Amino acid sequence: MTIQTGNQTRREFLKTGAGLAFAIPLASKLSLAGAQTAGNGAVANSYVILKPDNRITIYTHASEMGQGSYTGVPMVIAEELDADWNLVDIEFSPLSDELYGNPRYYGFMLTIGSDAISTFYEKLRFSGAQIRKTVMQMAADNWGVPIGEVHTEPSLVVHSPTGRSMTYGEVSMLGNVPETLPEVDESEYKQVEDYRIVNNRDIQRRDTPGKVFGGVMNGEKMFSMDVRLPGMLYATSKRNHFGNREVVRIVNEDEVLALPDVIGVDVILDSVTVIARTYEAARKGEQLLQVEWSNAEEDARYNSDEELERLKAIAYDESREGIDVMGHWRARLRGQVGQAEGLDEALASADEVHQRLYTTGFMYHAQMETMNAVVDVTDDGRKAEVWAGTQGPTQTRMRVAEVLEIPIENVTLHRNFMGGGFGRKAVRSHDNFVEAAMLSKMYEAPVKVIWSRENDLIAGHYRPHGAHLVTATRNDRGAIDNFLHRTVSDEPLRWGDPERFERGDSRPYLAASFWNGAIYPAVEKFRGDVVMEFTDTRVCAMRGIGGVATAFARECFVDEMAHETGIDPLEYRRRLFEGQPESQLVFDTLKERCNWDGRPGLGCAMGSASYALAVEIDLDERTGIVKPTKIWAVASYAVVVEPSNAENSFYGQLMLYVGASTSEEITFRDGKQEQSNFHNFQIARMADVPEIDVHVIPSESRQIGTSDGPAYAIGPAISNALYSLTGKRVRHLPVSPREVLKALNA
Amino acid sequence: MNVNFSVNGEAASVDVEPDTPLLWIIRDHLGLTGTKFGCGMAMCGACTVHLDGARTFSCQIQARSLEGRDITTIEGLSPEGPEGDVHPIQRAWIDEQVPQCGFCQPGQMMAALDLLNRNPSPTREEIVVHMNSNLCRCGTYPRIVKAIQAAAEEMQA
Questions:
Q1: Residue A233 lies in a domain
Q2: What distance in Å separates the CA atoms of residue A702 and residue A576, rounded to the nearest whole number?
Q3: What's the CA gap between A226 and B27, in Å, rounded?
């Protein structure tokens, strides 16, 4: 079914929507909703379609990479719509920035930053409530009764005094759609205690069965890597460790071309592709292929350890001025963070200043499904069909149109599920799609590009490494009152989304996310400065964004201050939240859950004002391997839309960051990555799973995403636990065996 | 070379290079895409299938060693699909809501079934040791353990 979008009137829509008796395009009304909730932007986001057979189709704007909002978004709409969940069908929305664009990201359809539900929450509720009111009005008009006399039950409008009723499907056939959809006031929303769908643990994700049956849903392949087309060719690609390099020479092209089934070796932008009749042939070609790249001599001198030393030196270099990245956000955070004015003076005039330097290493997304794409260019290069697992589907489509030099409307994009994304599949260059599109055009056949794990890692866009210099003072009660956090790092947006980076304006940068990892309210003066140091290592955002790096420095520093003042580290943090009972309750609860008693090997950290966790570790002093044995996490949430899924996601990010904070490392020596696949890039396995205790406290505050909060706290909690066990500090993330051994032997 | 074997109980025959990994034979030549590619070097387990009744990394088995052998893939567990008779392993995976992105799960289920075939009531420790071969970047490990325990009970009943 094709859903028309755009500027057509509702009447036209009814004509074009074949088979639908009643359809409500929400764009204009949602714009109104946006206007009412100032600051959230004014972009429409959803479609609800009521069908005569009483089924309801709800479109989900978000891309699905495992986080579960494919189901969660429609749940929020269905709740306010008072729909019978069993009658709801879910489909990915059509591509339209106008209707589904994310107001936080220049209005593009982008599923990033854990905001698939949270940013859209009020609009989703509004859209459901508005359709419900429309249906009530239509039924009331049909019965000739005032709307005040009708109420709804799941997918049913009921005339309260007489018990007369009509299904939503029946209403959809009445034909008396009002010219303008009714206004809905927030007071008309459902009460949380009346929820049947949202916050119901028994509601299952709709994509589960398809995934359990190998990735097929409604007869379609869920993952683009599984898509097969008649006459399809296969391609692999080989790229340099660094971006901005050109192919100088393909050393053994003839040798590769001589392999059975290999058809071609091509240079596509900064990649060399091998195209073949079978994937195994293309892969063999990739393994055999030797390429000479530009800048090779200089690149061979690149060592990430030395580079990090250079960033550390810049952190201390006062001639390198940082950008106050809090500028834009300070106003929005309304007094929740300390003011910047007078910070430098306060630090300069203080009797005692405390300063520590921390570093964080590169991190690789390691999504299980490597980058891949299927593209079929037809009509002499004038049209293209794309199968894509992407976090930014309209940007992917735009990029394909751009490289094929055809209008966007000639590109049809099928939205696939992703075998993991974590930010990697939001990178604006969409290289995998570019390769498939160009090759399909050149070879006049559908092409599937699959990056090997080695290429996925080598051409990875890592979270950048960086140095964090924290300078602070304490008041007479030992609490931190002035805090300067200076980050030296490359900027993830520079590679992840150069266009957004160039537009810069008042946007915060992603190297350091102070708005994610909240600043303690006790801090009176605060500034987060970023010194951008550009390199040729490809970087972009990764789950948790810059907050993971900044939280590591902050939470280790806070721990150090607690120990110096002789105050218990958990109590120290609690006091920094004085006057904020909801956050203090997080710490009180954590203290109780983990029986916080200062025993060696137990450490804690704050993730944000709503999350804190404690971790207990084991240490093998011979190897330096640190193993978390138990994690207690406490989170304060408003409405948890999908409780079962939120729990799974919470465990998941803890596991991802247990690995990313201990055993995973991306390092370069003599211009080469020292890691190439899962044998030397070791993500958490089942044996690494600690005992996990997650406790959720109901919150009065705003809706937040659950997909990356706890991520911030794991690394510093592990480092703090190591200190409590050994009295030695690792001021580097990951707390890897080599860093631990270095600290133990220092 | 031409090689004959059976997949999910049906005879199969392909003409491929002798060193073609079973993974790509299953996925591309036979069109059974439930088995996934994750690393190509036996480090992630996404490609796990059963070969003559025991689990194996299909990315490591070459065509030249396949003649006459018997392969089971995720598609072979519940031949009638979700609407039919669902295998207890898959039932447990749905009931426990295991998948997040879902990409590694076919491999996880094939590894789990291999465990339960040999050891119908594994301890938690035995589950962890056996399943340590299979990576899940989404970190669904706690639920995988629960699902295996649930499936074990179901299969013994």
A1: yes
A2: 21
A3: 8
CB contact under 8 Å between A419 and B145, yes or no, is: no
Residues 6 or more apart whose CB falls under 8 angstroms from that of A86 comprise: none
Please say which residue of B76, B110, B140 terminates a domain. Answer: B76
Mean per-residue pLDDT for A292-309?
96
Contact residues for A92 (Cβ-Cβ < 8 A; gap 6+):
A59, A60, A63, A64, A70, A415
Pairwise CA distance, residues A646 & A71, whole Å? 12
Report the CATH number that the domain containing residue B107 is assigned in CATH: 1.10.150.120
* CA separation for the pair A332, A243 (Å, rounded): 36
Residue B81 in any domain: the answer is: no
When comparing pLDDT for B33 and A181, which is higher?
Answer: B33
Tally the C-alpha atoms within 13 A of residue B86's C-alpha that lie toward its C-beta. 16
Q: What is the DSSP string of A346-384?
A: HHHH-S--EEEEEEE-BB----SS-SEEEEEEETTTTEE
Residues A730, A486: Cα–Cα separation, whole Å: 19
Residues in B touching A544 (Cβ below 8 Å): none
Q: What is the pTM of this model?
A: 0.93
Report the distance separating Cα A556 and Cα A605, nearest Å: 8
Q: Does residue B131 sit at the A interface (CB-CB below 8 Å)?
A: yes
pLDDT for position B16: 98
DSSP state of B26: I
The pLDDT of residue A260 is: 97
Q: What is the pLDDT of residues A19-67, one digit of tens each?
A: 223 333 333 333 333 222 222 221 122 568 888 899 999 999 999 999 9
ipTM rounded to 2 decimals: 0.98
Q: How far apart are CA A403 and CA A426, in angstroms?
A: 18
CA dist., res. B106 & res. A64, Å (int): 18
Q: Which residue has the higher pLDDT, A119 or A589?
A: A589
- Residue range of the domain that includes A716: 305-363+462-745
pLDDT greater than 50 at residue A11: no
Final residue before a domain boundary, out of B42, B76, B110: B76
pLDDT of residue A450: 98
Express each pLDDT in B70-98 by its tens digit. Answer: 999 999 999 988 888 999 999 999 999 99
From A14-18, A55-59, A146-150, the region with the lowest mean pLDDT: A14-18
pLDDT tens digit sequence for A721-742: 999 999 999 999 999 999 999 9
Are A282 and A235 a contacting pair, CB within 8 Å?
yes
Residue of chain A whose Cα is closest to the Cα of B22: A280
**Interface list for A 395-414 with B (CB within 8 A):** none
The answer for residues whose C-beta is within 8 angstroms of residue A402's C-beta and 6 or more apart is none
Of B17, B82, B100, the CB nearest to A209: B82
Instruction: Select from B78, B105, B137 the Cβ nearest to the Cβ of A211.
Output: B105
Q: How far apart are CA A447 and CA A441, in angstroms?
A: 9
Looking at the 3D structure of chain B, how many domains does it have? 2
pLDDT bucket at A13, cuts 50 / 70 / 90: very low
From chain A, the residues in CB contact with B131 under 8 A are: 686
What pLDDT score does A336 carry?
Answer: 55
**Helix, strand or coil for residue A411?**
strand
Burial bucket for residue A377 (CB in 10 Å: 0-12, 13-18, 19+): buried
* Distance of alpha carbon A174 from alpha carbon A437, whole angstroms: 47
Question: From CA A304, how far away is CA A364, in angstroms rounded?
Answer: 14
User: Which band of pLDDT confidence, cut at 50, 70 and 90, is reported for residue A498?
Assistant: confident
Q: How many CB atoms lie within 10 A of CB B76?
A: 18
Chain B residues in contact with A686 (beta carbon < 8 A): 127-128, 131-132, 134, 141, 144-145
Contact present, A686 and B145 (Cβ < 8 Å): yes
Residue A200 and residue A95 share a domain: yes
